[in-house]
Amino acid sequence: MEEVLLDKCSRVETERLVLRRWEERDLDGVIRMNGDPRVMEFFRSLNTPDESRQFLEIMMRQEEKHGFCFPVVEDKETGAFLGFCGLNIPGYSGPLPCEPCVEIGWRLTPETWGKGIAVEAAKFWLRFGFETLQLDEIVAITVVQNHKSRRVMEKLGMTHDPAEDFDFPNVDQDHPLCRHVLYRLSADKFHEQTSD
Ligand SMILES: CC(C)(COP(=O)(O)OP(=O)(O)OC[C@H]1O[C@@H](n2cnc3c(N)ncnc32)[C@H](O)[C@@H]1OP(=O)(O)O)[C@@H](O)C(=O)NCCC(=O)NCCS
């Protein structure tokens, strides 16, 4: 899997975007994005510059280990850092109910919101996951109240069963960001959708 990604997928282009591996030069963009209260509305805290530095190190380490980790999204025309979107193997503070799994996730700078950027990047990575990596399923998770993110999941054809809602590991049960939804997309459904 690693070889496939590193050889064939270190940098790809979609209509408006470059999707690529993490680089040191992304640090300024990460600090701005992870320190922005609009972006971090559904996370338990903003990241300090030091935490963003650690975040970038983790992304790069996970990418080395698995071949991918929420790849970078860049503006094709200007080269600006827009955030991240793509596949990841979860490694959170505790196991998710759907593990082992490959998830898809996104975080973009607010200037880019509402233009279909998340969906454009995610569509590429879903195709890559199902066609190149031959995954059986890709999942996505978010807090119940993150309707923007849920809308992206729905636009990608992912489906949600309320019976699978879960408490995020190691978060107090009475914390407003504890309850999470799980969306799934199977390879069969993806192929059905894309053959239309
Ligand atoms: C979630 C996020 C990546 C979406 O990016 P985006 O590029 O704006 O997404 P898209 O433009 O592709 O689609 C957004 C959809 O959500 C809809 N939307 C926006 N705000 C919404 C809201 N409050 N409630 C419901 N839907 C909403 C938009 O209308 C659009 O759907 P439409 O095309 O049918 O109109 C972006 O908002 C973000 O980075 N948020 C902060 C980080 C975050 O929460 N990440 C997810 C963690 S799980």
SSE blueprint and pairings:
Blueprint: H1 2-8, E1 11-13, E2 17-20, H2 27-34, H3 49-66, E3 72-75, E4 81-88, E5 103-108, H4 117-132, E6 137-143, H5 147-155, E7 159-160, E8 166-167, E9 179-186, H6 187-194
Antiparallel strand pairs: 1-2, 2-3, 3-4, 4-5, 6-9, 7-9, 8-9
Explained architecture:
The chain is an alpha+beta fold and 196 residues long. It has a single domain, classed as Gcn5-related N-acetyltransferase (GNAT) (Aminopeptidase, 3-Layer(aba) Sandwich). It contains 6 helices and 9 strands, in the order αββααβββαβαβββα. It has helices at 2-8, 27-34, 49-66, 117-132, 147-155, 187-194, and strands at residues 11-13, 17-20, 72-75, 81-88, 103-108, 137-143, 159-160, 166-167, 179-186. A 5-stranded antiparallel sheet has the order 1-2-3-4-5, sandwiched between helices. Strands 6, 7, 8 and 9 form a 4-stranded antiparallel sheet that branches. Helix 2 packs across helix 3 (49-66). The longest helix is centred in the N-terminal third of the chain and has 18 residues, at 49-66. It is globular and about 40 Å long. Bound molecules: coenzyme A (COA). Coenzyme A is lined by residues 39, 42, 105-108, 112-119, 142, 146-149, 151-152. The site of coenzyme A has 21 residues, from strand 5, helix 4 and helix 5.
